[in-house]
Amino acid sequence: MTILILGLALWYAGHFWKRALPEKHSAMGDKAKGVSALIIVAGVVLMVVGYRATDSYDLWSYPSFLKHINNLAILIAIYFMSPGPAKGAIFYKMRHPMLTGMIIWALAHAVVNPDPASMMLFGALTFWSVLEMRVINRAEPNWTPNPKGAIAKDAMFLFASVILLGVIGYVHGLIGPNPFGA
């Protein structure tokens, strides 16, 4: 679990150091983006390694229908992480659709993975998303929504999200548990 926690710490550091150490960040110029990316990638690698290395046991059991609700939630999360909300007509006034998608994704995973490593990983990523929204809102209080797009854009990105869910689910089944059942 220590490696998982170190990975989460790097994830947080890579995302927050711009606002925590603004002088050092701005002094680096464009190189700061590369440093942030390296820190975040290292964090993701450590999260994966730490998660897979942690002994797994369920803290509770859940009814099998929650897998279907989980998959629907993941579809919604993928849509929110797409350009759809910013370019469409339904969610164009939403300030943080990607972070909202991250919260939905993490909570959906926590529900169907009731083990300590999952609670740590997905709980910390949910907390990070909420914290990131607050930090952004505080740093940039004046925000203007995107102009309203077409409902056809919403439909296009929803369709793309369904395709992506299938691809992600297939790959997920190759490297881990099959999210679509047996």
Shape: globular
**Strand count, sense and closure of the main sheet?**
none
SSE-based structural type: mainly alpha
Q: Please estimate the helix content.
A: over 70%
Determine Rg (CA atoms, Å).
Answer: 18 Å
Mean pLDDT: 93
**Order of helix and strand elements from N to C terminus:** HHHHHHHH
In short:
With 182 residues, this protein is mainly α.
Can you describe this structure?
This protein has 182 residues and is mainly alpha-helical. It is built from eight helices and no strands. It has helices spanning 2-20, 22-28, 31-53, 65-81, 84-87, 97-112, 116-139, 151-175. Helix 4 packs across helix 8 (151-175). The mean pLDDT is 93.
Helices and strands in order:
Elements: H1 2-20, H2 22-28, H3 31-53, H4 65-81, H5 84-87, H6 97-112, H7 116-139, H8 151-175
Helix pairs in contact: 1-2, 1-3, 1-7, 4-6, 4-8, 6-7
Features:
182 residues, mainly alpha, 0% strand
